[in-house]
Amino acid sequence: MLQEIKKNIYFLNAVDWNRRLFDSLIPLPDGTSYNAYLIKGSEKTVLIDTADPSFEDSLMEQLKEVKKLDYIISLHTEQDHSGLIPHVLQKYPEAKVIASPKAKDFLMELLFVSEDKIITVADNEELQLGDKTLQFIHFPWVHWPETMLAYLKEDKIMFTCDFLGSHLATADMFLKDECQGYESAKRYFAEIMMPFRTIIKKNMPKLESFDIQIVAPSHGPMYNRPEFIIDAYKDWVSDNVKNEVVIPYISMHGSVEKMVQYLVQALKQRGVKVSIFDLTAADIGKLAINLVDAATIIVGTPTFSAEAHPLVSYAVKLVNALRPKTKFASVIASYAWGGKAIDSIVEMLPNLKVELLPTVLAKGAPKDADFKALDQLADAIALKHKDL
Length: 388
Ligand code: FEO
Hints:
This protein has twelve helices and 21 strands. It has helices at 56-62, 79-82, 85-91, 101-111, 178-193, 197-203, 226-237, 255-269, 284-291, 310-322, 341-347, 368-386; strands spanning 3-6, 9-16, 21-22, 26-27, 32-40, 45-48, 71-73, 96-99, 118-120, 126-128, 133-138, 148-152, 157-161, 214-217, 242-249, 273-278, 294-304, 307-308, 328-335, 355-356, 360-363. It is elongated and about 80 Å long. The chain binds MU-OXO-diiron.
């Protein structure tokens, strides 16, 4: 049975309670959902997005009682939302797919939707459904170049697809626990949206001309307090950083562990908040969340075959791809016979616009001079953070 949001507007959700990995990379501790929306206007009926192909049965069951469909709107063509468009078209052969001009190629290349089935819409173009009107807002790079939002004017609902969404499996239509929702949405932002922070910041003012009562994303619950998620995004995409240090590290024989623990205490004494992530067991999503606000990242690595440890290299490569707004960086390392670990880490961070603070390289186990260097690094960090 269809779940009604408002009269003739329905929430078609596929809850993926047990999914634990997205893009074969991103941890999903709380599962996810793929939301589609059905709008029955007095003249036309539209479906906004579909669901992940693994939820074909679920979506088709929810559409069982829908006799006629005029349009499928594809806000974003990644397959977790578009993957069932061919199946829906099979059920409703008269339906057309509405998408942004950039999405047209993707629909044809990824899903073999035929060109004559696709109608492209310009930025701000409207679609009349009879007693309801949809307005399309091009909103590129959240997180693909073709994405658009759709605003249902009469009901003041903004459909945002991935943008403002969260990987959170829940049976609720609307977010109930804002603490949990904040964490899930921040994780989603950190893992998916953060690399596009600058362009999102540029496009965010577009939302201000709309009176939004409901934000309806395609992952996670809807928001009936839109300012909760919009204000959170404004903060995350801003250039503001906090008095926080994030330390991802590996220790093979305890030297780096000692250096990290010493630095944690030194920073704490100087009033700096620190989060450390042992990369043998860390949730990389949690690391990403902490990088949304942190002013400084310190990478800790032992030397493995004359270079940084491979697990550290992997994490640093990921950090570089996520492009956090972090302003300062350093590396603390130990070595026995080959001292190139620090250079190899610094070379892996070209995307970060960071000021490199003094690095610390211990030969073997850390000694008094190394601890003194760590104190000096803590001093430098505290001084830089004073001006934030
Ligand atoms: Fe949820 Fe970018 O797909």
